[in-house]
Amino acid sequence: MPFLSDTLSRVKPSPTIAMTNKAAELKAQGRDIIGLSAGEPDFDTPANIAEAGRRAIAAGKTRYTAVDGIPELKRAICAKFERDNGLAYSPAQVSVGTGGKQVLYNALMATLNPGDEVIIPAPYWVSYPDMVLLAGGTPVTVACGIEDGFKLTPEALEAAITPATKWLMFNSPSNPTGAGYSRDELKALTEVLMRHDHVWVMTDDMYEHLAFGDFRFCTPAQVEPGLKDRTLTVNGVSKAYAMTGWRIGYAAGPEPLIRAMAKLQSQSTSNPCAISQWAAVEALEGPQDFIAANNAVFERRRDLVVTALNACPGVTCPVPDGAFYVYPDIAGCIGKTSAGGTVIADDEAFATALLEEEGVAVVFGAAFGLSPNFRVSYATSDAALEEACARIRRFCDRLR
């Protein structure tokens, strides 16, 4: 009798974490490594938020809380949805989890049965398909190529929907591409969804506040109120508030779904960290001006990286609308051989050779479901980005 579960064989470890770990191993060996694979801001958590965590400790707010969030945080989340998105929810319609990943996973575990399908536009965040598989569902990926701006079209969505479709997982601005959907583009998608009332929508809005230039964020239930009763709107404090390690994500949706998610959480992790919850209250209710200041830095870095990568032979790098990633196409590099003798058969070979030969860690596109590409996180210093892009240029120049 096998000891490990058969379910575990259906999933693979996170490629982004694997690449980050590989870069760390090389760095520990004394190599000069620039890591562009981790998706977290390089800014410190704002001082007022950190202080709120310290106050919680000093006040003894370190015990168990309600399974899916303290009332104060749920009220702050309701106010955030009303303020930022024009969406009205009650605290009973809000779930708080240990990061956005747990919230997404809880929703899938609470709703999927064998044979249920989940539509996932590709490129996608690496965890989406594996979470669906762990929950017993079937991921249905829909390729959204560079010619469509890495975005799902209404025609492609319509073609992917079957009687077995239960969810559409939707992410804007996107990890890994930074592509954001305009209100008109979202409206076209919601018109399709309104014709299929058995399909629910799970939105990952984690990068909502990281939007640049003329791009204006909106979320599906905001664009089409008729979808609200079958939409789970997921968000969190990790990216915009530089709180990745605090591990607080949240969602709002129909109360029966929220209750089901709470039931599941009660038998798995129980409540999120009490201290982090109080810090998240301050994040949502406190000053928000630092977000615009941080975005100005991210936008400058975006422009630096896009310009530099587009100067590399064989590389095409679109300009993203938000988040802190670029997703360059490397079709012009495939089939060539690196200076170190590696045949660039695919984007994984490109990323591996780039790390080994030039000491730059990126994540290969196959991990996100669309090749040949790689993902760069530009959530690091200008100096590191300039040096990394120079190394990538040198690597591409030497391909033969």
Report on this model:
Keywords: Aminotransferase, Pyridoxal phosphate, Transferase. This is Aminotransferase. InterPro entries: Aminotransferase_I/II_large (IPR004839), AspAT/PAT-like (IPR050596), NHTrfase_class1_PyrdxlP-BS (IPR004838), PyrdxlP-dep_Trfase (IPR015424), PyrdxlP-dep_Trfase_major (IPR015421), PyrdxlP-dep_Trfase_small (IPR015422). GO terms for molecular function: L-aspartate:2-oxoglutarate aminotransferase activity. Its cofactor is pyridoxal 5'-phosphate. With 400 residues, the chain is of the alpha/beta class. The chain has 2 domains: 6-44 and 290-397, Alpha-Beta Complex (Aspartate Aminotransferase, domain 1), CATH 3.90.1150; 62-285, Aspartate Aminotransferase, domain 2. Helix content is 40%, strand content 12%. It has 13 helices and 12 strands. The chain has helices at residues 15-28, 47-58, 71-85, 100-111, 127-134, 154-160, 183-194, 220-223, 255-266, 274-285, 289-310, 347-358, 382-397; strands at 34-35, 94-97, 117-122, 138-143, 165-171, 200-204, 231-236, 249-252, 325-326, 360-361, 363-364, 374-377. The strands form 3 sheets. A 7-stranded mixed sheet has the order 2-8-7-6-5-3-4, sandwiched between helices. A 3-stranded antiparallel sheet has the order 9-12-11. The protein has a two-stranded parallel sheet with strand order 1-10. Strand 5 (165-171), helix 7 (183-194) and strand 6 (200-204) form a beta-alpha-beta unit. Helix 4 packs parallel to helix 5 (127-134) and helix 4 crosses helix 9. It is globular, with a radius of gyration of 21 Å. The mean pLDDT is 96.
